[in-house]
């Protein structure tokens, strides 16, 4: 198991695959012991992936001191130094997308291409859902609310009518399955990450990002809604591809993404597909409204989302399409 000293902490990391180099920055509560992860995804078949347990999480050290988003970006840059990568493409998901923004702004020479998934800028561009507000809720209430945040179709009414599906979703977030449950400093580290996340704001500095950037998100995402991704895409002046990843009507049965769906949802724990009835009490937003910022481009399934990410990270697109 590879560990490395990054600045003020001992950090766990993994490398996998061969090909163009990609730094993967994971989301809130990320722990490389949790499977499946992006390290197990098709990306590893075409790229050399580098991913670490960020400070306070997983097998990395968990100092009980205030963390900042700058700390997370500096940790990422230090990891690139440790593995002797002068620069690489960067894929940031959710909280990792926030870190990726800071990294690209603070260390522009280290970032070749950028993919920002299911994330937000903070500030005037809007923030992701304040997850720290859920931490003190009773477990059942927290899980129910968390599901609705992940995908706006998973309303309380839908959850009540689909207990088997809800059980599959909840199994993904069951604290008893947390590989770090009960470890010293685990709660403090998770809390410190959420405190840093709550302070995230790159809005006034996004114009410093000068690399090709793909912004993508879930059309049903309640945690980082499409308007947050739209704001990011409009604000970053670099060549970019704007692509919301909600599925439209299709003859095939596909997963219509909520939060970080292409990377995280197992096939057995899926949201309602677009050829199933919509959740009780809700109606899917019309495609024309949800994706009007695409300027006529077609929307994508989860598989299409992954394909576009692969093409973008591999440098096959440089003028706003992938």
- Can you say what the CATH homologous superfamily is? Alpha/Beta hydrolase fold, catalytic domain
Query: In total, how many beta strands?
Result: 8
Amino-to-carboxy terminus distance = 35 Å
- Uncertain spans, ≥5 residues at pLDDT below 50? 243-256, 262-302, 317-322
What is the tally of helical segments? 10
Quick one: CATH class? Alpha Beta
Question: What features would you describe in this structure?
Answer:
With 322 residues, the protein is α/β, with parallel strands linked by helices. It has one domain (3-130, 186-266, 286-313): 3-Layer(aba) Sandwich (Rossmann fold). The chain contains ten helices and eight strands. The chain has helices at 69-82, 95-106, 139-150, 156-161, 163-173, 186-198, 226-235, 261-264, 287-290, 302-313, and strands spanning 3-6, 9-16, 21-25, 48-52, 88-93, 111-117, 213-217, 240-244. It has an eight-stranded mixed β-sheet, sandwiched between helices. Helix 7 links the parallel strand 7 (213-217) and strand 8. The radius of gyration is 19 Å and the shape is globular. Residues 243-256, 262-302 and 317-322 have low confidence and may be disordered.
Short description:
This protein has 322 residues and is α/β, with parallel strands linked by helices. Helices cover 30% and strands 14% of the residues. Helix 1 (69-82) crosses helix 2.
Any descriptors?
322 residues, alpha/beta, Rossmann fold, 10 helices, 30% helix, globular, disordered C terminus
């Amino acid at each position: 198991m590879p560990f490395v000293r990054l600045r003020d902490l001992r950090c766990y990391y993994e490398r996998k695959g061969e090909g163009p180099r990609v730094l993967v920055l994971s989301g809130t509560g990320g722990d490389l012991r949790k499977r499946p992860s992006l390290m197990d995804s098709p990306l590893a078949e075409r790229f050399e992936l580098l991913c670490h347990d960020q400070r306070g999480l997983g097998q990395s050290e968990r100092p009980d001191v205030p963390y900042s988003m700058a700390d997370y970006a500096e940790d990422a840059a230090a990891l690139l130094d440790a593995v002797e990568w002068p620069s690489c493409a960067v894929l940031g998901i959710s909280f990792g997308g926030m870190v990726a923004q800071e990294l690209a702004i603070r260390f522009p020479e280290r970032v070749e291409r950028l993919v920002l998934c299911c994330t937000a800028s903070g500030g005037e561009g809007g923030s992701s859902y304040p997850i720290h507000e859920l931490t003190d809720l009773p477990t059942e209430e927290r899980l129910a609310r968390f599901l609705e945040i992940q995908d706006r179709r998973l309303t309380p009414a839908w959850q009540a009518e689909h207990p088997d599906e809800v059980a599959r979703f909840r199994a993904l977030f069951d604290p008893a399955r947390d590989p770090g449950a009960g470890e010293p400093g685990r709660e403090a580290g998770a809390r410190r990450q959420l405190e840093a996340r709550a302070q995230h704001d790159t809005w006034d500095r996004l114009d410093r990002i000068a690399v090709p950037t793909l912004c993508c998100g879930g059309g049903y995402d309640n945690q980082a809604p499409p308007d947050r991704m739209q704001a990011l895409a409009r604000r970053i002046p670099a060549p970019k591809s704007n692509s919301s990843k909600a599925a439209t009507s299709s003859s095939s049965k596909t997963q219509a993404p909520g939060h970080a769906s292409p990377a995280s949802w197992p096939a057995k724990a899926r949201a309602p597909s677009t050829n199933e009835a919509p959740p009780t009490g809700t109606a899917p937003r019309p495609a024309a409204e949800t994706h009007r910022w695409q300027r006529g481009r077609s929307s994508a399934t989860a598989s299409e989302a992954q394909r576009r990410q692969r093409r973008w990270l591999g440098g096959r697109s440089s003028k706003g399409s992938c």
